[in-house]
């Protein structure tokens, strides 16, 4: 059965980003409330505000207003952005360093607090510290086979734990004390508090980009072999049947009850309830798909 669960709506036109530049590439995006942040390959962060408008006919449009842009001063791409709205901070990964910047003016925090040696990072959406003025950050370290946990405050960072992994990690998602890791040849669940680990299933990161997403308390969504979107709990079991993706999925997102996936030609929408494909949207040359606050 075909369902029109989603519509594609343009939010920011290319000219608003490009200006008089010949070419720029969007490397990462973050959306927090009405704030949209875009990181580019020429080391800029752009901040837009998005206003959603619904016409009397029910058509949804977005009006984007550019607030400012900031050059980070390096010849490297901005590879990841994550907002910590409780701290009014944006965590910016560029050149293996996570810098804390003010969400409003994009200026680095005066203390110069930063995390060095990060390949990629994620936030713990089910934090264990209980401190509302702190975010827990997990990084894949540039040190071989190493994961590090940090507490990030408004103007300082503090390392909490360093964990060693059996193979080189390349992607991570976090829930409480549990890390779901894509290693070189397999996915595993690792409890960084106890050190216990659980193998999930094999996967070759050399052949395809792994996908690891926290989708709820103690549950993750993974890109499995054979084009399957697999669900796994922290106990290493699957409580739902997998969804059938194409072999070359490059991104996935969750908007309950739908799992949305991106490949090089389409966006596909499956139901988590019956695993059936509900919608297909043609979309070429997409390379990022993420979900932000619904």
Label this structure with key terms.
294 residues, mainly beta, 4-stranded antiparallel sheet, 2% helix, transport
Describe this structure in words.
The protein is built from 1 helix and 24 strands. The chain is mostly beta strands and 294 residues long. The longest helix has 5 residues, at 14-18. The mean pLDDT is 93.
What spatial order of strands do you see in the largest sheet? 1-2-3-4
- β-strand amount: over 45%
- Percent of residues in helices comes to under 10%
Tell me the Rg in angstroms. Answer: 19 Å
- Which ranges are low-confidence, i.e. pLDDT below 50, for 5 or more consecutive residues? none
State the end-to-end CA separation: 24 Å
Sketch the major β-sheet: 4 strands, antiparallel
Arithmetic mean pLDDT: 93
Structural class: mainly beta
The overall strand count is 24
Silhouette: globular
Give, in order, the helices and strands.
HEEEEEEEEEEEEEEEEEEEEEEEE
**What is the count of helical runs?**
1
InterPro entries: CNH_dom (IPR001180), Vam6/VPS39/TRAP1 (IPR032914)
Keywords: Cytoplasm, Protein transport, Transport
Subcellular location: Cytoplasm
Organism: Neodrepanis coruscans (wattled asity)
